[in-house]
Amino acid sequence: MKKLVTLFILLFISFANAQNDEVSFTANVSKKKLGVNQRLRVDFTIENKDGDNFTRPSFEGFRIISGPAQQVSNVWNNGVRSFSRSYSYILQPSEVGKVVISQATIEVDGKVYKTMPIEIEVTKAVDDPNAIPGVDEDLGDKLLLMAEVSKTNPYVNEPISVTYKLYFATDIGVNQFDVIDDPKYSNFWNQNIETKGYNTETKLYNGKRYRVATLKKVALYPQQAGELEIEPLTIDVGVEVPTNRRNFIGRPIYVNTTKRVSAGTRTINVKPLPTEGKPESFSGAVGQFDFKVEISRDSLEANESLDARVRVSGNGNLKLLSLPKLKTPSALETYDPEYEEKVTTKLTGMEGSVAENYTIVARYKGKYPIPSVSFTYFDPKAGKYKTIDSGEKIINVTTGPVNNQVVTNEPTTANAVTGKQQVVTNGNDFRFIKIDPELEPITKSYFYKSTMFYILMVLPLLFIPIVIVSRNKREAYRADVQGNKIRKANKLAKKYLSTARKTLGDKEAFYIALEKALHNYLKAKLHIETSEFSKEKIAHLLDEKGVTAEDVTEFVSLLESCELARYSPASNVTMQQDYDKAASSITKIDKQI
User: Fold this and answer.
1) 95 and 158 co-located in one domain
2) What is the DSSP string of 348-369?
3) Quick one: 203 and 243 in the same domain?
4) Which residue range(s) make up the domain with 35?
5) Residues 556, 538: contact at Cβ < 8 Å?
6) Together in a domain, 162 and 263
7) H/E element holding 565?
8) CB atoms within 10 A of CB 125
9) In degrees to the nearest 10, what's the CA dihedral of 475, 477, 479, 481?
């Protein structure tokens, strides 16, 4: 009986050890749904046996914040060994949507084990109820991204503005930022307002002193009534943070890190335009406007033309409104109008004018009225509709055939006047052939065998050796295509960066000169003015010129670095590195263009 019990115990222990020897390799995440501004932890754990050659996934769609951190557990309990090893990573998503953490692999006793893929749902940036919106969890309230809205209860088509500002404490530095999630502004007409440099100012916020940089300005026109959401802007910020260590002169040593911040969602309550007192002539114009119908002259002769302009100017949704049509009598030949737009968009909205220019030709003698035209708009400041009448215009055709048809005020095209018309001449329609040409004889002179004749005969022979030598040198120079590109690009880089090189050592002057050099290079190569600079436009134009995406990103990043570096600590070594990077970027881009 004792032998049977002993045998049973031994069999049980062997079975338990066999079960314990089974290898398990799994992947676990702290959350499967998170915002683009949040983080998750992923653990790859092998149990019962240790492994070799661990290979992590590519983590495409994520940015690795930290890892791998390894943790080993080796426990004996009642003679049974329990072993596990974990590889842990902290990740932050870099895009919105469904993102998959692919398989990790490890090798145990010559056999490869794989984890199962894990699908993660990444949403727009979310608000943390336990923290101030837009605050990075590691820096506390030292780094904030704010979205300042000019008005939260506008009318439909009334302009509002959103200004995105980065608040950072005075003891940290900011050198660059990258947009991770840009708002789409659904149900808004929108236009970015160019920010000329990231100049900083000092402000007090919640009792603390911050330096504030304006990153982005957008003008918005809501297109429908109701509650409309402005999606959050999310960016990665390159930050220089002081440490507890000091350099040899006692100043704190800074370390570079990247932090992600979000501005949070903003809600706009859009009011509908009132229906009471709404005129039939209203076509959607909202703002403060002036309206005119102007004619270039009111007296002319038959077959002469005049210009008529229907023009709206002022502040409001100029690019979105419809101009009233000009009506002319059928006896006047009126051509389709040409549209003219002179509008600039600022934070306060659109300013300028839009117009339609008509060409009108008079064919018959008489006086022809151009009826008054009405333009109606809604003034959001006054809260009511306003109508402007252009007044009637009289066109007096002083000479020409008489039109026997009845004059009407209906709009016409170039073929609206039917029936036969008399030919009207102005006295200069025909030019007669001259009978007496008044020709004069040419004085005879003999060039053959003259002194100039012999000089011109010999001169080409003298130039033959010079032409041959010059042509050979030119062909050799042209044959060196790569060398020509490099010489030309290097010469161009030195030309634009010469001023910046002279100011090396003076941080503020250097970065101002370097930024100006980059702008001048863009003006020369892309043919755009300084007022038209924007990162999106620069990237688009360089891409059209065939520049690689990597070089475009490097150039745009360099522009941002120049703008922000003036307000952050920088050594002579850093300035020299930025100078070399600028020269290299200009050379590479110019070779491709």
Assistant:
1) no
2) TEEEEEEEEEEEEEE-SBEEEE
3) yes
4) 19-123
5) yes
6) yes
7) helix 549-565
8) 25
9) -150
Token pair 């109508």: residue: 387
Q: Give yes or no for a contact between 163 and 217, defined as CB atoms under 8 angstroms apart.
A: yes
Q: Give me the tens of pLDDT residue by residue for the chain, a chain 593 residues long.
A: 666 656 656 555 554 454 446 788 899 998 899 888 888 889 999 888 888 888 899 888 888 877 777 777 776 666 666 778 888 888 888 888 999 999 999 888 888 889 999 999 998 887 654 333 333 345 778 889 999 999 999 999 999 999 999 999 888 888 778 888 888 888 999 998 887 777 788 888 888 899 999 989 999 999 999 999 999 998 888 888 887 777 666 677 777 778 888 888 899 999 999 988 888 889 889 999 999 999 999 888 888 889 999 999 999 999 998 899 998 888 888 988 999 999 999 888 899 999 999 999 988 888 999 999 999 999 999 999 999 999 999 999 888 787 765 444 444 443 333 333 444 444 454 455 666 667 776 665 666 777 888 888 888 888 888 888 888 777 776 766 555 555 565 566 666 677 777 777 777 777 788 877 777 777 777 766 655 567 777 877 888 888 888 888 888 888 777 777 766 666 677 778 788 888 888 888 877 77
The last residue of one of the domains, among 88, 123, 158, is 123
User: Which three-class secondary structure state does DSSP give residue 268?
Assistant: strand
What single-letter DSSP state applies at residue 155? B
Rg (the chain; Cα; Å): 39
* Strand, coil or helix: 494: helix
Query: Does the predicted model carry a pTM greater than 0.70?
Result: no
Spell out a b/e string for 337-365, using b for 16 or more CB atoms within 10 Å of the CB, else e: beeeeeeebeeebbbebbbbbbbbebbbb
Contact assessment for residue 271 and residue 154, using Cβ atoms and an 8 Å cutoff: yes
CB 232 within 8 A of CB 147: yes
Closest CA to 414 of 330, 312, 527, 305: 330
Instruction: Please state the domain count of the chain.
Output: 4
Residue 200 belongs to some domain of the structure: yes
Asked if the structure places residue 467 within a domain, the reply is no
DSSP-based three-state secondary structure for 455: helix
Query: Could you give the CA distance from residue 101 to residue 96 in angstroms, rounded to a whole number?
Result: 14
Same domain, 263 and 223: yes
Burial of 128 (0-12, 13-18, 19+ CB in 10 A): middle
The one-letter amino acid code at 66 reads S
